[in-house]
Amino acid sequence: MTESTAARKPRRSAGSKAAGTTGTEASGNTGGKAAGNTGGKAGTGTKRTTRTTGTRTTRPTRTTRAAAKKGSETELVQLLTPEGERVEPTGKAAYAEYAEYVAGITPDELRGLYRDMVLTRRFDAEATALQRQGELGLWASLLGQEAAQIGSGRATREDDYVFPTYREHGVAWCRGVDPTNLLGMFRGVNHGGWDPNSNNFHLYTIVIGSQALHATGYAMGVAKDGADSGVIAYFGDGASSQGDVSEAFNFAAVYNAPVVFFCQNNQWAISEGNEKQTRVPLYQRAQGFGFPGVRVDGNDVLASLAVTRWALDRARRGEGPALIEAYTYRMGAHTTSDDPSRYRHDDERAAWEAKDPILRLRRHLESAHHADEGFFAELEAESETLGKRVREVVRAMPDPDRLALFENVYADGHALVDEERAQFAAYQASFAEAEGV
Amino acid sequence: MAAEKMAVAKAINESLRRALESDPKVLIMGEDVGKLGGVFRVTDGLQKDFGEDRVVDTPLAESGIVGTAIGLALRGYRPVVEIQFDGFVFPAYDQIVTQLAKMHARSLGKVKMPVVIRIPYGGGIGAVEHHSESPEALFAHVPGLKVVGPSNAADAYWMMQQAIQSDDPVIYFEPKRRYWDKAEVDTEAIPGPLHAARVVREGTDLTLAAYGPMVKLCQEAADAAAEEGRSLEVVDLRSISPLDFDTIQASVHRTRRLVVVHEAPVFFGSGAEIAARITERCFYHLEAPVLRVGGYHAPYPPARLEEEFLPDLDRVLDAVDRSLAY
Does the pLDDT of residue A275 top 90, yes or no? Predict the structure, then answer.
């Protein structure tokens, strides 16, 4: 993309400007009067000291550095190649900072990530099948996005809070949400069948991009509480066009909220490709708001894990928001109601299948002798057990009681709802009476 | 001293102050609400006393204000957000209707949304475009929201206390042209329910029902009618969702005639709902169809024309005449 060249030019001034702005803010706190005049440099100088106090001076420093690293659109953080080889960050300064977050990863943890991805894909396939069998009204498949979701999901801590779209089945898995709970809304028995506070995993949000603001507000609350939890907001390339996402970026930056914006760029917003959403690589949007943006190989679970850990870590330290663009691919249709053959070619999918997130980790596990045949066979059996359980639970999922439509409209009740519930109940009872006679 | 004479704006200010004092989870958010104290000074002095963390000057983005308030509510806070003017609420309309109103139901009651959205509304102040609208029906139509509109300082004080204590989202419409009207406010009196209407003047010939800025007009109309020997009852509805139909019904049983007055356009306005329901409830008691007085189906006009658009004494009395002529 030629835009990257154009975007490179104002970067310096954008970075300096951000530093100058926050430098001025900081001057009130730290007396760093010169910061406003010397721009980014002053920010760099004060970074270490301010980090401990959690003031905002660190943000522009990161912005400038992150921006300087991202030379071109095609550069993305990758720690595991499609062939399953670990990328050595040596000589690639850009990677080193992230790579250290997975430097000590054990074979057991790698197998765990692999298991998460395989089971998530199996669950997803089962849900698609259940839709085809008429058990679900709709399903939004995550096929192809397992690494972005498992990597980022496994980077979260128990006390972190997650705001998903409606496709974050892998993240839900990481948060410990029973996968069968995700299916209620797609079966049409509820609008979300889990308690958001049980797993700090908010309900799926269907209107695109709205949850970015909820995540930001929640993170503002975390900061007010003086807690060191992180918040992560998921959204996609389509959502990046929504005003709410831009407003969320801005609120998060202004209040230095501990929120990570995790954008899964799966290349397609139903039928519209990236070129219909943006003229600049999405991660570069962060610059304009004054926080760092990183593009990561979203089909690389290690890189997704590392970059998200990095972003959450700095959020916890009071260094504010970050944007992660996980570059990935929606291998399936938008939903089971969609027909991608109308707008894209199969060869595109084939090219991305070669970069399959599960396959590459399997290659790595095998070549590094981290897993044997027994492990894969056992996982296969576990997958089938999961599929069977999901199938059985969904088929047994009862329709809600009729009167449930009046439930929970209000927390403190409402006279009209009470009146209509009574009328509805009487109306229904009239049939029973008629039948009873 | 519990009772004190204060203006509507001051009463809201005092109520917010009390809420900030008594509950550390209460936050004030909005454009210019901090240092400036709001464009109408309703939040005057609160940031000075409670700090920038609790009285938050926000970026100029209404969807962002409500969207982040939802997130703060999820975290356990009770945000009271200000939309600076009625006509500025629409960028936030999506967050209010799509997210805020539905969150409790879609979470099967697991999540509560104790968010108050303050909106100074209505005309009569000679303002420019988008500063004089009455969008209450657009919110009353949405299940999950509660909508209230105090008409006087005492109600403004107590209804704000009750709105903040509510675990449901409450759209709190402030009658901006009455901001400076003073009344006795007893800050220790135990108030009635938030969503109950109140008969503010008893009469026998006809009931005038109104809320917010139109209550005062209806009282003036009742005074004028009294001089002509007509006894009008005035009901201050106070709450638009839920609406206290029982109180209106009881009044109509006495007077047999009803005129509803609001600034909002009549077409699909709250008067339409009141007319339909009261007709259903009081069909054999009514001597005349329920009449409505309100704005026209036209964009709110330039200030030099707003007197023509807004209900005034003559238009209310004209409707009274027409009702009594049946």
Answer: yes
Question: Does residue A435 have a pLDDT over 80?
Answer: no
User: Is there a single domain that holds both residue B182 and residue B205?
Assistant: no
pTM across the whole model: 0.90
Q: Does B42 map to a domain?
A: yes
Q: A196 and B111: CB-CB below 8 Å?
A: yes
Amino acid at A406: F
Tokens of A115: 């298991």
Question: Which residues of B, range 44-103, sit inside 8 Å of A by Cβ?
Answer: 53, 58-59, 61, 63-64, 66-77, 91, 94-95, 98-99, 102
Q: What average pLDDT is seen over chain A?
A: 86
The H-assigned helical ranges of A80-234 are: 93-99, 107-132, 146-154, 169-175, 184-187, 196-199, 210-225
Residues B167 and B271 in one domain: no
CATH architecture label of A76-395: 3-Layer(aba) Sandwich (3.40)
Helices (H), chain B: 8-22, 46-50, 62-74, 90-94, 103-106, 136-140, 153-165, 213-227, 245-255, 270-282, 306-309, 313-325
State the angle between helix axes of A107-132 and A357-367 in degrees (0 to 180), rounded to the nearest 10. Answer: 150
**Token pair for residue B70?**
């939802």
A189 touches chain B (CB under 8 A): no
| Biggest CA-to-CA distance, chain A | 89
- Spatial separation of the C-alpha atoms in residues B170 and B149, rounded to whole Å: 10
* Averaged pLDDT of chain B: 97
Give the confidence band of A74 by pLDDT, cuts at 50, 70, 90.
low
The answer on pLDDT for B299 being more than 90 is yes
Is the Cβ pair A254, B59 closer than 8 Å? yes
- Active-site choice (B130, B131, B141, B253): B131
Q: Does B304 lie in the same domain as B240? A: yes
Q: Say if CB A304 and CB A148 are below 8 A apart.
A: yes
Q: Do B72 and A196 touch (CB under 8 A)?
A: no
Same domain, B83 and B221: no
- Whether A437 shows a pLDDT value over 90: the answer reads no
End-to-end Cα separation, chain A, in angstroms? 75
Tell me what pLDDT residue B190 has: 85
Query: pLDDT tens digit string along A230-255?
Result: 999 999 999 999 999 999 999 999 99
Cα separations (Å) of A166 from A7, A138, A210, B253?
A: 32, 11, 12, 52
pLDDT confidence tier of residue A193, bands split at 50, 70 and 90: confident
pLDDT of residue A434: 77
- Main-chain dihedrals φ then ψ at residue B208, nearest 5 degrees: -105, 125
pLDDT for res A92 = 63
Q: Looking at the structure, do residues B130 and B205 belong to the same domain, yes or no?
A: no
Report if residue B191 sits inside a domain. no
Asked casually if ipTM beats, i.e. exceeds, 0.95, the reply is: yes
Output the six-digit token pair for A254. Answer: 């202004």
Interchain proximity A411–B77, CB inside 8 Å: no
In this structure, the answer to whether residues B303 and B182 fall within a common structural domain is no
Q: Indicate which CATH number applies to the domain containing B212.
A: 3.40.50.920
Please state the domain count of chain B.
2
pLDDT in tens, A417-429: 999 999 999 999 9
- For residue A236, the surrounding DSSP H or E stretch is strand A231-236
Query: Is B131 one of the annotated active-site residues of the chain?
Result: yes
Q: What whole-number distance in Å separates Cα of residue A116 and Cα of residue A379?
A: 10
Give the SS3 label for residue A323.
strand
Q: Are residues B118 and B248 in the same domain?
A: no
pLDDT at B2: 78
Q: Which of A121, A99, A88, A80 is nearest to A299 (CA)?
A: A80
CATH code at B119? 3.40.50.970
Same domain (yes/no): B57, B159? yes
pLDDT (0 to 100) of residue A380:
98
Domain membership of residue B208 as a residue range: 198-325
